[in-house]
Fold this protein.
Amino acid sequence: MVEGLKVINLKKTFKLSAKQQKLEKTKDKVRKAVDGLSFEAYKGEIYGLLGPNGAGKTTTLRVIATLIKPDEGDVIIDGLSVVKDAGKVRGKIGFLTSDMKLEAFFTPNYLFDFFASLYGMSEDKIKSRKEELFKMFGIDEFAEVKISDLSSGMKQKTSLAMSILHDPDLIVFDEPTNGLDVTTAKTVTDFLLRMRDEGKTIILSSHVLSLIEKVCDRVGIIMRGKMVVEGRVDELTKEKDLETIFIESAREVEFNEKRTNSN
Amino acid sequence: MKNVLTVIKKELKRFLTDPRMILALVMPGIIMMVVYTSIGAIIKNIEKKTTYSVITVNQPAIVASMPETQSIETFHKTIPGSVVDIGDTTKEYVLEQIEKGDVDLLVVFEKDFWDKVNAHDADSSVPAPKIELHFNSAKTDSSKVYSMYSMFLDELEGAMIAINKFDIDLKDTAKPTDIGIMLISMILPGMLVIFLSAGSMGVVTESIAGEKERGTIAALLVTPIKRSELALGKAAALSIASLASGFSSFIGVIVALPSMMAGVELEVNMYSAGDYFGVLAILISTVMLLTLLMCILSTMAKSVKEATSFTGPIMLVVVAAAFPTMLGMVSSTNLALTLIPIFNSVQCLAQILSKSFNVGYFVMTIVMNLVYTGLGIFVLGKMFNNEKIMFRQ
Ligand SMILES: Nc1ncnc2c1ncn2[C@@H]1O[C@H](COP(=O)(O)OP(=O)(O)OP(=O)(O)O)[C@@H](O)[C@H]1O
Ligand SMILES: [Mg+2]
C-alpha cells in the first residue's frame, strides 16, 4: 500500500460554454484543464503546487477531494482510488479552499457538532476532539458567536479546525492564505507545519512563493495542466530562486507552444 | 438515515436563526393580511360612503295591517342618512335645495294616503292616490336614493294588491352559509396553492442557490454523507419551511377573510374534521412536490438571482392550474386529470371545500403527488452528484 498520495496520469477536460469561448477569445470547444499530470506526495511532507492562473491547480485538488471525477487516470490515497472508493476517500481527506465558506448563521460550536456527526463520529469522540481543536486554535473564546460576526482571522481558525475534525490522513488546501492578513496567514502556516509534524500528508496550491519556500518540502510547477518542473524546494533553490524558475519555465512553455502552432 | 435527520435539523435551525429567512417565512402572511384587509375596507368604504338627505311630505301613519318589514318606516330606517317629514307645507323651497344638491329626494304623499288607498276602487274613474318623487338625475346621490325609493315603492305596490288576498310568505331556500361555501371553494384552493409556491420559492432559492453562491455547499460535498441523503434532508427541511411560509400566508387570508367577504356568513363548522384533514393532506403532498420542483431548478442556478428567474415561471404554471377553480370549474369525473400535477391538487381542494369530495380523485391526487415527489428526490440526488451542475463556471 502506498502511504500518502499518488496522482497517476490525471486528465480532465471541461466543455467551454459559448460565453467562456467569447471571454477567453478561443474557438476551442473544450479546455484541457489537467493534461496527463502525475506526482506523489509522501506522508509527513508538504507538497506545493505552483502555477499561473488557469494552470489546473484547483481542478487537480478537486479531483483529489472527490468533488469532480477525472476523465482519465486516478488518484490513490492510502491505497484507495478517488474514482472507485470516493465515499471512503472522503473520510480520509480534509479539504479547504479560500472560496469554501462556513454558513454564516451558525456558531463554531454548532457547526463542529454538525460536521462531526456527518463524519459518523460518536458523541464522546466529538466532545473530546472539539475540546482539543478549540483549545489548539483558541476558538473557545468565540465558540458561541455566529460566523457572520467573526473576524476573518477567527473564521479562518474555525475553518481550519473544521477541515481536520475527523483527523484526516491527507490535508488538501487550495490557496490557504489567499486574502488573509499577516497574522491570520501565520496561523495557517503554523497549522501546516504542525500537521506535518503529526505525520499528515499535505498538499497545497498557492501563488505566494514565499509560503511555498517556507513550508513546502517539495514543489511541482504546473502549466497548461502539465508538470514542468518538480523537485525538493531546497535543492531547486540552490542556484536560482523560485521566482526565476517560474518565469523561465513560463517562457519556455510559451515558446514551445508558438513553435507547435507555426508548424 | 441519521445523516438525513442531521441535515434536516441543521436546515430548520438555520431558518430560525436567519432573520431574513424568518422574514421570508412570515412576510407573505403579513402582506396578505394587510392587502386583503385593505381591499375589504375599500369595498366597504365605497359601499357606505354616502349618506342621503330625504324629505317627505305627508308621510302616512303606520298601518297595523301592514307587515312591519314592509312598512315605509322600516324602509326609511334602512336609508343611510336622514329622512325628515315636513308635514303639509309648500315644497318649492325643497325643490330648490334638490337642484343645488343639499337635499337628495323629496317624496310627496297625498294627504290621508292609506285611507285613500283603501277606499280606492280600480274600476272607478277616480284616479288612484299619488306619490310624487322629486329628484335630480344630474346628481349621483340623488339618482341613487331615488332608485332605492322607487324600487321599494314598486314592491310596496305589488304587496298592496296582494294584501288581504293571500299571505306573502317569502322564504329563501338557500342556507346563509351556502354562498360562503361556494365562494370559499372558488377562491381558497387557488390561493392556497399560489401561496405555497410563493413561500416555497423564497425559501428554496435562498437555501439551495444561496449555498452554491456563498460556497458553503462544497463543505458538505466533501463529507462522506451520501448525496442522496443530502438531497432528501434538504428537500424535507425545505418542505417544512415552505409549508410554514404557506401557512403564514394562509393565516393572513383567514384573518382578512371576514372583511373581504363582508356580509357573507362563514362558520368554522361549515366543514367537518374529515374535510379539514383532507385539505391538510393535499396541502402537505402538494408542498413537497412544489418544493422538489423549486429545489431542482435552484440547483441548476449559480446564484439566488438566477434561481429566482428559473423558478419564476412556476408561478405562472400554478396560476394557470388554479384558474379553472376560480371560475367554478370543478370536476371529479375524469381521473386521468389527476396525472397533471398541481392542477390535480387545486381541483381536489375545490372538491373538498365545495363539499363534493371524491375518494378516488383524492387518493389518486395524493398518490401522484408522492410519486412525483419521489421522482424529484431521485433527480435531485443525481444532480447533487453531477459535478457539471454543482461546479458550473
Ligand atoms: N467547471 C468548469 N467548467 C469549465 N471550465 C473550467 C471549470 N473549472 C475550471 N475550468 C477551466 O479549467 C482551467 C483550469 O482551471 P483551474 O481552476 O484548475 O486553474 P487554477 O490553476 O486553479 O487557476 P487559479 O490560479 O486562477 O486558481 C481554466 O482555464 C478554467 O477556466
Ligand atoms: Mg485555483
